[in-house]
Amino acid sequence: MTANELIAYVRDTYSADPEYPWDDENFIFRHTANRKWFAVAMRLPYSRLGLEKPGSVDIVDVKCGPLLMDAYRRQPGILPGYHMNKDNWVTILLDGTAEDGLIRELMDISYDMTKNPK
Fold first, then answer.
1. How many beta carbons lie within 10 A of that of residue 89, not counting itself?
2. What are phi and psi of 17, to 5 degrees?
3. What DSSP state is assigned to residue 63?
């Protein structure tokens, strides 16, 4: 999944558009009701993620909570949350390493974990 495909998925699934709070290509997704972030997407050098690979990569950080953390971090393309609480967030590489179904699953979890309680 690419960053553009992620934007399309979030628009179609949650009716949320990306917001660009830093006046660059990095963006966030928020709930419309409570304004809480459920994802933040950035472009970073692989080296900033501790990966020995040249170039840069699009990533998305999503919340998944400590109970799910270990299982997801064992999947290809999933890392500890970059620039977020590493006990509650994971980073997903948007370079084809992580499977699209896994990305959608993690987006769904993050969306559910950050919405208002009923």
1. 21
2. -100, 150
3. E
Q: Are 93 and 79 in contact (CB under 8 A)?
A: yes
Measured CA to CA, the distance from residue 59 to residue 49 in angstroms comes to: 10
Q: Write the burial class of residue 6 (CB in 10 Å: 0-12 exposed, 13-18 middle, 19+ buried).
A: buried
In angstroms, what is the C-alpha Rg of the chain? 13
- Residues 6 and 104: their CA atoms lie apart, in Å, by 8
118 band by pLDDT with thresholds 50, 70 and 90: low
Quick: pLDDT tens for 25-67. Answer: 999 999 988 999 999 999 999 999 999 999 999 999 999 988 7
Q: Compute φ and ψ for 46, nearest 5 degrees.
A: -55, -35
